[in-house]
Amino acid sequence: MRNLTSIVSYPERGEGGSNRYRGNCSPKLIEDLIGFFKPHEICDYMCGSGTTKAAAEACGIGSHLYDLHSGFDLMSCEIPERPEFIFWHPPYWDIILYSDIMYKASDVEKRYGFDPRLADLSRIKDWDRFVEAMNYAMMKQFTALERGGRMAVLMGDIKKRGRLYSMVSEIVKPGTLENIVIKAQHNCFSDRTQYSGSFIPILHEYVMIVRKDAALMIPILSTKRSEVDIRDMRGATWRDIVAAIFEESGNALALEEIYAMLQDHKRAKESRFWREKVRQTLHLYPQVFEQNERGRWRLRKVR
Ligand SMILES: C[S@@+](CC[C@H](N)C(=O)[O-])C[C@H]1O[C@@H](n2cnc3c(N)ncnc32)[C@H](O)[C@@H]1O
Questions:
Q1: 113 vs 30, 34, 108, 117, 165, CA distance in Å?
Q2: Distance CA 44, CA 29 (A)
């Protein structure tokens, strides 16, 4: 058994599960998690090719495995166990499609009576909806854990059109966050990256480990996307507020026009002398602001 540390790397995948099942993981990772946390059993509700079962067998413990391909939809089916340890390896958003690609949707429909494409997380087109579904599945599994139980979640980052879609950043983190392990990626980072322009190739993924210490009251850490107007922000300096007003307008501005873009905002309302503050700021930073020949103010071009 290898030692589990905060960085893991398995250049050789190892035996168990199938390396032909796209997005499969190394059984060595799961063996190391079992070796470290020593659960009596392990559950996997998105088991893919069954890597978790092979790892459990190698470690001499029991396992319970499910997947959409065998008629189990984590979003709508009841979790049969009260698990002590869950390994969860959700799809990398829509980068690798599962239903009707790795298995035939019609076979699942014939055997289990539902179209797996409608429940498949990898078929959710919109990132925010994917995050919502991922977080629903995360909380559902976490609440099924017995007290003292753990979840290890293997996730990656996705880069599309210059933006990073980071599963580990946006996933809800219930319970006690115990570890975030970096797992080196071998051979397939390009699968996750839609190249456009310059990018930093992604060569790692994450294993997040959370522990359930309490039964009823569960702390959660979750992200929320919102916007702030820096004209309302305490921490913004006058220099940055005035510079941002020029950037937003794209023009040289007369003092009255700068005032008009500020007057309804908190920073102006907070001080009787905000107009004086604007004028003082324009004069205080000649390396940032300048006046044109018509006496209007603008940002000084440095590049
Ligand atoms: C990244 S793969 C897991 C790979 C696995 N760890 C292995 O080594 O083979 C993700 C799996 O999630 C399954 N899945 C997607 N949506 C699901 C859902 N709603 N319920 C259950 N399984 C789902 C897919 O069928 C796919 O097998």
A1: 32, 35, 7, 12, 34
A2: 14
- Residues (pLDDT < 70) of the chain are 1, 187-197, 303
Cα angle 148, 132, 216 (rounded to 5 degrees) comes to 30
Domain that holds residue 246: 230-299
CB distance 153 to 90 below 8 Å = yes
**How far is it, in rounded angstroms, from Cα 277 to Cα 242?**
10
Give CA–CA dist 3/210, Å, rounded.
19
| Structural domain includes residue 101 | yes
Name residue 182's beta-bridge partners. 7, 206
Which amino acid is it at 148? G
The domain tally of the chain equals: 2
Residues 166, 246 share a domain? no
Q: Same domain for 175 and 294?
A: no
Q: What is the 295 CA–ligand 1 centroid distance (Å)? A: 64
Q: Are 9 and 184 in contact (CB under 8 A)?
A: yes
DSSP 95: S
Same domain, 211 and 235: no
Region class of 154: left (phi > 0), else alpha (psi between -120 and 50), else beta: beta
Query: pLDDT for 118-153, tens place per residue?
Result: 999 999 999 999 999 999 999 999 999 999 999 999
Phi, psi of 164 (to 5 degrees): -95, 125
* DSSP for 111-126, written as a single string: HHSS-GGGT-GGG--S
48 ligand 1 Cβ < 6 A: yes
Q: Mutation test of ligand 1: which of 120, 130, 183 has the most ligand atoms closer than 8 Å to its C-beta?
A: 120
| pTM, rounded to two decimals | 0.92
**Ligand 1 pocket check for 72: Cβ under 6 Å:** yes
